[in-house]
Write a structure and sequence with these properties.
Layout: E1 2-3, E2 6-10, E3 24-27, H1 28-31, H2 36-47, E4 57-62, H3 68-81, E5 86-94, H4 97-106, E6 117-121, E7 133-139, H5 148-160, E8 163-167, E9 178-184, E10 187-194, H6 198-207, H7 210-217, E11 224-227, H8 234-244, E12 252-253, H9 274-279, E13 294-298, E14 305-309, E15 312-314, H10 316-330, E16 341-344, H11 350-358, E17 362-365, H12 370-377, E18 383-386, E19 390-393, H13 401-415, H14 428-439, E20 441-452, H15 454-467, H16 471-481, E21 488-493, E22 496-497, E23 504-505, E24 510-514, E25 519-524, E26 532-542, H17 552-567, H18 569-573, E27 580-581
Parallel strand pairs: 1-9, 4-5, 4-6, 5-10, 11-12, 11-13, 16-17, 16-18
Antiparallel strand pairs: 2-8, 3-7, 6-7, 9-10, 13-14, 14-15, 18-19, 20-26, 20-27, 21-24, 22-23, 24-25, 25-26
Bound molecules: 6-O-phosphono-alpha-D-glucopyranose (G6P) and zinc ion (ZN).
Length: 582
């Protein structure tokens, strides 16, 4: 057994190591500065209680982006030096964010050990490579991101740090499964490299009926396509969709994880998942030939998802509503009923209507997955989702891209259980249109104005807040812009009181609510890296089944006009069009 020594290394603080709930994200070049990652990791150890470090079991892995393998070796050595008992590493440093959450919650080591936390190495949907982004975040014992109390403490520690601890261990081979034992001043230290998919696959099998999904995926009537955008989802897709569920290998696109995501932007939306979008018969450069019946994509760390039907896009807001409406029938995990459902404030109210119909507890929380975690820990929420391509459930404490795909496949399998040998296939589009006919449709679009001057964005938001003090003035502007738009009946800045811990989150976005259920929401992004990003969310509710089939941009055009007039978008930002429309 290799015996190691612990060294104390002198260091000085770096500016700007404040982690958000999605961790610390910076360019690789920043992370590669000597002591930069070490300072952050030591500051995290120092922010945790002693029993979460000394003698503890930690998970370290991520989406496989450039610099991950170096980072794993650094963190392993520092863990040993800080008295951690064992580190679990996914083979080749790969674990999706949802898989890390599952491993923390579910995995039991050979000696009965359980993990109490994880360093997740990811910058989510941001591009990777030597000139792109790297990221690190810490997740707690419940499998969810560290709460603000801890992230604030980590940040404080980074501003005063003077030294960190490291051990003179040799690099561990993380390409081969197995355990390596070391011996240090405080006793034994182990590094266990394990299969990245096993625990996650086991959890998915306990939630979904794999046999019924297999019947669907192997039916000649059904065609399928999954795009991992060269992110870590590839490590799970081959195993789950092909090996376990019988999909053809040719149905996997970009499913080999790459350190630079093949040079692409690993974000599953209509703009960045170009190849999938073309294959599904959508977009300007759509492929010739018959598209598959079902398509889906994931982001770099596989927590986001996009769901597509043949020549058909399912908005994330509709997706969570449809999953909630069908879960009890289609997914064994939910067969005894849903504890409640939740969505983020800017996500459309499609889920609200389902909750009302099914008499379910319902929560509207600010943007950010952490708010759902609290509800789930308290047993108040089973299914939740966000407009930003995040969907998930209380099986873990992160959103889960592959779970969302399995949920959709379960619904399709259930609706087609008698059709696979004869009869017409019920398609994704059929399911969505039927849902609209039953519950009404929430036409929905999001306009992003990226890299706007930060002051201009602040002024625009201040203008909108001030305007809310006079609804008469607001309605004057609305009527002058479009006489066919209904009246604004309420305006506010969204504030949330957490029903579990009573904490209050204010200034979570500006809302204009209309008499007919339409909503205009303005928010500043919390994840942009340059300048400010203004997000404008536009939503209109249509109950009449005869009118739910329109093109959404066309249906929303009057509200868009009103939104631009109310906010004086062009005056404040100089922009006559958004950067991205989703
Ligand atoms: C991350 C979080 C999501 C959140 C999103 C919002 O992806 O994990 O929970 O919805 O950021 O981003 P924004 O840029 O709109 O603040
Ligand atoms: Zn992500």
């Amino acid at each position: 057994m290799v015996v190691f020594k612990v060294t104390r290394v002198q260091t000085t603080p770096f500016d700007g190591q404040k982690p958000g709930t999605s961790g610390l994200r910076k360019k690789v070049k920043v992370f590669k500065q000597p002591h930069y990652l070490e300072n952050f990791v030591q500051s995290t150890f120092n922010a945790l209680t002693a029993e979460k470090v000394r003698g503890a079991t930690l998970v370290v892995s991520g989406d496989g982006r450039y610099f991950s393998k170096d980072a794993v070796q650094i963190i392993v050595k520092m863990s040993a030096a800080n008295g951690v008992r064992r580190v679990w590493v996914g083979q080749n440093a790969l674990l999706s964010t949802p898989a890390v959450s599952a491993v923390i919650r579910e995995r039991v080591g050979v000696d009965g050990s359980k993990a109490t936390g994880a360093f997740i190495l990811t910058a989510s949907h941001n591009p990777g490579g030597p000139n792109e982004d790297f990221g690190i975040k810490y997740n707690m014992e419940n499998g969810g991101p560290a709460p603000e109390g801890i992230t604030n403490k980590i940040y404080e520690n980074t501003t005063t740090i003077k030294e960190y601890l490291t051990a003179d261990l040799p690099n561990v081979d993380i390409s081969a499964i197995g355990v390596t034992n070391f011996s240090g001043p405080e006793g034994q230290f182990d590094v266990e490299v394990f299969d990245s998919a096993n625990d996650y696959v086991k959890l998915m099998k306990s939630i979904f009926d794999f046999e019924s999904i297999r019947k669907l995926l192997t039916s000649p009537k059904f065609t399928f396509c999954y795009d991992a955008l060269h992110g870590v989802a590839g490590a799970y897709a081959a195993r789950i969709f092909v090996e376990e569920l019988g999909a053809k290998e040719s149905s996997l696109l970009n499913c080999v994880p790459k350190e630079d995501f093949g040079g692409g932007h690993p974000d599953p939306n209509l703009t960045y998942a170009k190849e999938l979008v073309a294959r599904m018969g959508l977009g300007k450069s759509r492929s010739e030939g018959e598209p598959p019946e079902f398509g889906a994509a994931a982001d770099g760390d596989a927590d986001r998802n996009m769901i597509l039907g043949k020549r058909f896009f399912v908005t994330p807001s509709d997706s969570v509503a449809i999953i909630a409406a069908n879960a009890v029938d289609s997914v064994p995990y939910f067969s005894t009923g849903l504890k409640g459902v939740a969505r983020s404030m800017p996500t459309s109210a499609a889920l609200d209507v389902v909750a009302k119909h099914l008499n379910l507890k319902f929560f509207e929380v600010p943007t950010g997955w952490k708010f759902f975690g609290n509800l789930m820990d308290a047993g108040l929420c089973s299914i939740c989702g966000e407009e930003s391509f995040g969907t998930g459930s209380d099986h873990i404490r992160e959103k889960d891209g592959i779970w969302a795909v399995l949920a959709w496949l379960s619904i399709l399998a259930y609706k087609n259980k008698d059709n696979l040998n004869g009869g017409k296939l019920v398609t994704v589009e059929d399911i969505v249109r039927k849902h609209w006919a039953t519950y009404g449709r929430h036409y929905y679009t999001r306009f992003d104005y990226e890299n706007v001057d930060a002051n201009a964005a602040k002024n625009l938001m201040a203008h909108l807040v001030k305007l809310q003090s006079s609804l008469a003035e607001v309605n004057d502007i609305v009527k002058k812009a479009r006489s066919d738009v209904s009246k604004v009946v309420h305006g506010d800045e969204f504030e949330y009181k957490d029903p579990v811990d009573g904490s209050i989150s204010s200034h979570q976005g500006i809302r204009y609510l209309f008499e007919d259920g339409s909503r205009l929401i303005f928010r500043l992004s919390g994840t942009g890296s340059e300048g400010a990003t203004i997000r404008l969310y536009i939503e209109q509710y249509e109950k009449d089944p005869a009118k739910t089939g329109r093109d959404s941009q066309e249906a929303l055009a009057p509200l868009v006009e009103v939104a631009l007039k109310l906010s004086k978008m062009q005056e404040f930002t100089g922009r006559c069009a958004p950067t991205v429309i989703t």
